[in-house]
Amino acid sequence: MANDVTITITDREGISHEVQAPTDMNMNIMELVRAYELAPEGTIGICGGMAMCASCQCYVLNDFPLPEKSDDEQAMLWEAFNVKENSRLGCQIHITEDLDGLEIELAPEA
Amino acid sequence: MIETDILIIGAGPTGLFAVFEAGLLKLKCHIIDALPQPGGQLAELYPKKPIYDIPGYPEVLAGDLVTNLMEQIKQFQPGFTLGETAETIEKLEDGSFIVTTNEGTKHLAKAIAIAGGLGTFEPRKPILKDIEFYEKEDRGVDYFVKDPEKYRGKNIVISGGGDSALDWSIFLSDVAASVTLVHRRNEFRGALDSVEKVQELKSAGKIKLITPGEVIGFKGSERIESVDIEVNGARMNVVTDYFIPLFGLTPKLGPIANWGLEIEKNAIKVNNALDYQTNIEGIYAIGDVNIYPGKLKLILCGFHEATLMCQSVYQRLNPGKKYVLKYTTVSGVDGFDGTRKEAEKAVVKSIE
Ligand SMILES: Cc1cc2nc3c(=O)[nH]c(=O)nc-3n(C[C@H](O)[C@H](O)[C@H](O)COP(=O)(O)OP(=O)(O)OC[C@H]3O[C@@H](n4cnc5c(N)ncnc54)[C@H](O)[C@@H]3O)c2cc1C
Ligand code: FES
């Protein structure tokens, strides 16, 4: 069985949560935030993970070798608000064993 | 005043299917939706995506499911108030309700089914000082193009990089005195032919393109007179009558939150063991908009909830009457338009 990884997520209230994320359920970071209810219903994952709403935008806090942004992710981030250098779309980051120790912060709701 | 048996707020799959189930019970429905087209999330967010978990459909495009639902309910002749938001609900002494929209359209109904999904889709607003001032009373900021004629002969600045920014720039280039399209990048995310058309109109001098650029402020005391735009680190000022930011829509519970209903986690609490009624008798909540222990936000769950809700409304409106569950295969379907659908009877032939 695949191992869980530990990911630290700072919610929009500034509270940090260390959560265990499964690597064998084809989950992404947006779904992980929803599963642990770290953002109110209706404020994250609005487009269902299609890189079309930016409600799942997060800032990557530690130096992590994440996969490159796809064209879709890049284009959505160009349209989004509160975008920083370290912005990513949570729904485009799939949880794999490589993510153990990742630290992210949810971007403000827009 | 529009009168109906069940007034459905929300034309998503749940609201649409409720019309069918109500029709079987001879109850008339009218639907309100804030969007100009029926289909809810399926039409607004993912019309071209396949859905795989509708029983009996190994695969169906969300847009096609909406088309089929519309076809299925046609015989029950529902009324529609589209492009208007249900704003207030008033309960009358006889137990019926008056629902008024933001445009003032009034609806009188014996029961209400809120099928509002994630809420009304509202524009994503750029974070700009004073934008709230300019978006009111026709002071120059619009988030939707409702009537293109409003912009005839005017100067327009549109911002955004998706399909609606491209489409409206193209459309208004024929109507407005000038159209300036501002986008943060040189690349646009939209249908290829729209991008090419904008390119053509730019070359013909009919659209002014400012990329990579961003509107960062307004000038004007009573209404907008010009917008400040940052281009490659420098600032410029463009004289305009209207600024139309088109950055997509995001659902917000909206007016539903003010109707005195019990709300939990951005959804309306209902008694699921029984009939999906809310804390106000006669008001039901079905589909994504409701919450109860074990709730799943799936289309098929909305269909199920719509069915039980209609049975309950029938019982409420016909207290003495016994209703016996019928199968449409056996009893057929009688439309309000005089049509009758029925399975063909097998031929009875004697064997000698
Ligand atoms: C990308 C994506 C993929 C999905 N894939 C699937 C899938 O494969 N299978 C599945 O079962 N489900 C899927 N879903 C979930 C599914 O779309 C929802 O469960 C379904 O749309 C809920 O239907 P509904 O009718 O309850 O609400 P909605 O579809 O949200 O419709 C609600 C409607 O109510 C309107 N409204 C709200 N408030 C008001 C008001 N005050 N006045 C007027 N109108 C109002 C809104 O404008 C909206 O049109 C998916 C969702 C997304 C985003
Ligand atoms: S959920 Fe919409 S962009 Fe990620």
TrEMBL record, chain A:
Source superkingdom: Bacteria
Keywords recorded for this protein, A-Z: 2Fe-2S, Iron, Iron-sulfur, Metal-binding
Residue ranges occupied by any 2Fe-2S ferredoxin-type domain in the UniProt entry: 3-110
Secretion signal, residue range per the UniProt entry: none
Gene Ontology BP term (one): P450-containing electron transport chain
Any GO molecular function: metal ion binding
PROSITE patterns, A to Z: 2FE2S_FER_2
Cofactors, names only: [2Fe-2S] cluster
Family: Belongs to the adrenodoxin/putidaredoxin family.
Protein name: 2Fe-2S iron-sulfur cluster binding domain-containing protein
Organism: Flavobacterium rivulicola
Lineage: Bacteria, Pseudomonadati, Bacteroidota, Flavobacteriia, Flavobacteriales
Automatic annotation (TrEMBL), chain B:
Every FAD/NAD(P)-binding domain range: 5-296
Source species, domain of life: Bacteria
Cofactor(s), names only, from the UniProt record: FAD
Reaction(s) this enzyme catalyzes, per UniProt: 2 reduced [2Fe-2S]-[ferredoxin] + NADP(+) + H(+) = 2 oxidized [2Fe-2S]-[ferredoxin] + NADPH
Flavoprotein is among the record's keywords: yes
Sample GO molecular function, one term: ferredoxin-NADP+ reductase activity
Keywords: FAD, Flavoprotein, NADP, Oxidoreductase
Annotated FAD binding sites: 14, 33, 41, 46, 86, 121, 288, 329
EC nos: 1.18.1.2
Signal peptide: none
Keyword rRNA processing: no
Cofactor remark: Binds 1 FAD per subunit.
PANTHER family the record matches: THIOREDOXIN REDUCTASE 1-RELATED-RELATED (PTHR48105)
Protein family: Belongs to the ferredoxin--NADP reductase type 2 family.
Subunit structure and binding partners: Homodimer.
Name recorded for this polypeptide: Ferredoxin--NADP reductase
Classification of source organism: Bacteria, Pseudomonadati, Bacteroidota, Flavobacteriia, Flavobacteriales
